[in-house]
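Reopening this ticket.

The earlier resolution said the output was attached, but the attachment link was broken on my side. Pasting everything inline this time so it's all in one place.
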Amino acid sequence: MPESNDLKTHEDLNNVFRIAPHFVEPDNRDIVALPEKTWLKEARTDFRFLLYAPPSQLIQIHDYAQALTELMRAHVDSFDPAKENCSIRDFIEKENGQPYDLLIVGVDKHSFPKSLWLNPVSRRLLAWLPSSLLIVREPKWPLKRILLILLHNKWDGKAVDWLVHLSKRSEAVATVLTIVPSTPTMYQDVGRFAVGLPEILANDCALGQRIRRVAERLVVEGIEATCQLRQGSPEFHIQQELIGGNYDLCIIGAEPRNSLKRFFLGEMVTPILNWTRRPVLVAQGL
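Inline output:
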């Protein structure tokens, strides 16, 4: 954006575009306020949820889904295979004109791994579902504490969006957890390999930029949040944080659907769902 009195730039632009350029001088305060105007949109009231739960969990999950629906001012439908006489995939695909934002799946807490991961329907569901997914094993309500886990992939932004939507409406306190690999033993005494949240935020690396953007977003949105950085095994630190933090909800971005990519990048979502009793929202998206 050239200065209005920069005659050389005016001439160069004129030579390139063959037209006389017209310059508008914005107030610097307008430029600074652009992120706020972009992020602070009016709260959405057009969310569409779909509830899918086994008969043994239906009443408990229905109450949870109803409370969440009222909080988000959303419309909710229920899927009953017996009544619909079709698969949940067929049911969702029939709704392409008005897609769902979130599928809420209730899971029998006494047979969680079997019912979710060994059930062919659930396995296919997680492989093709276009919307975000909320797995509820033991409902926790109201929402007071939410954990956001950053995987630094393309769905982090969607995960942050869900955190903003839920925290603003519930006034829940948020914790943003980022995990980085441990420093190799041979470099632990070398100062330049020291890694901490202040160092990463002060650094112009991609990780630091992403964490800063998330932190700035939450500040602008007026959400009370804490950023935490851990080094080492992601599964270990996530498990420790979930156990010790007494969270009501965990939000995490979806992982690649390609099993080879998950193998090389490390899989986080499946291990979390296999052991945690907390509701987990896997963000991906429309």
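Reporter confirms the inline version is readable. The first strand starts at residue 48 and ends at 52. The chain has two domains: 39-139, 142-278.
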